[in-house]
Write a sequence for this structure.
């Protein structure tokens, strides 16, 4: 199990102002203790909401993390390291990209057809 050692709130900019709740944690793997591992456990555009979420992460709280087998300092709060979320985003954006490409192709074809039909001067 992982234990919260400290928490802090920092502003991060990902296009817009965003407040992140960062947790420093410590855990043990194979007899070796790892400390000062930083995890972003919550973020919101409203600092007050982030401050409220901080109450759920007191020092000493224990929670589960998933450790990369080849690098014990590489951890994630989700079993697949967040790869599933990337796959979902890709799956959702693929139809949008195809629709955009189809629309662009139709505009180009329409423009070419209009140029062919216009009388030469």
């Amino acid at each position: 199990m992982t234990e919260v050692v400290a928490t802090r709130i920092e502003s991060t900019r990902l296009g817009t102002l965003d407040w992140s709740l960062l947790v420093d944690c410590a855990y043990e793997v194979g007899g070796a203790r790892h400390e000062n591992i930083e995890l972003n456990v919550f973020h919101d555009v409203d600092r007050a909401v982030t401050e409220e979420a901080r109450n759920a992460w007191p020092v000493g709280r224990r929670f589960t993390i998933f450790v990369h087998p080849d690098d014990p300092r590489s951890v994630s709060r989700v079993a697949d390291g967040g790869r599933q979320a990337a796959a979902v985003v890709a799956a959702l954006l693929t139809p949008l990209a195809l629709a955009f490409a189809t629309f662009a192709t139709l505009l180009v074809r329409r423009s070419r057809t209009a140029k062919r039909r216009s009388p030469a001067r």
